[in-house]
Amino acid sequence: MINPFTMVNKDEVVRRVARLRAAHPELSERELCELIIASKARLCGVSGTVTALPAVFPVVGTAITLVVGAVLDMLVVGYLMAEMVLEMSAVYGRNLNVPGVSMEAVWVMGSAVGADMAHKSMNKAAMKGMSNQAFLRLVQEILLALGIRTTQRTVLRVIPLLGAVISGTVNYIICRRVGRIAADYYARNGYNKWDNTIDVEGEVLD
Q: Which domain holds residue 56?
């Protein structure tokens, strides 16, 4: 299982946020986050739709949709949501190169996704003592929980065309929900409230 936070280009995230600010100087941070959420939700919806389309071909297409399509969809959605949370982090003034900022983003995403492991282990104190292997398992658990949610209508995915519509809609709704929870967190909490003594980012996330 990959860690989507290792794949996000943080420099590009910063440039993208700067362009967004320049294009919409009249908007508040929360309003900029809504634009980010809307954009990522649309892309997540496209991923769900496209990865379910092979079901229009009997037998082989159904197998591809159930196996390859579901996994690919989970990975794409995981990456897009990781990128979304980091973009909102940058909107609220976080320096993405500061140790702990990506860890905070993981914590925010995990809390929003509602992974069981996140509920049990993702308090700040517990994350302090995590080994690199434990932290990677935590990220994997978040992706697994996300995958369960994005493929929770797996049987319906294989219904030609209708399955693609349903899959895309589920992805869209989940992304918006996760995005709004994350945006609410950043709106209420400055980085000074995060324990910036946590420093595993260089070994795990970069």
A: 7-204
CA atoms within 13 A on the CB side of 99: 11
Cα–Cα distance, 182 to 185 (Å, whole number): 5
Domain membership of residue 1 (yes or no) is no
Taking only the tens place, the pLDDT of each residue in 122-174 is 555 555 555 555 666 667 677 767 765 555 455 555 555 666 777 788 889 88
Number of domains in the chain: 1
Sign, CA torsion 100/102/105/107: negative
Q: Is 91 domain-assigned?
A: yes
Distance between CA atoms of 18 and 145, rounded to whole angstroms? 32
The verdict on pTM exceeding 0.85 is no
Q: List Cβ neighbours of 164 (8 Å cut-off, separation of 6 or more).
A: 48, 49, 50, 52, 53, 55, 157
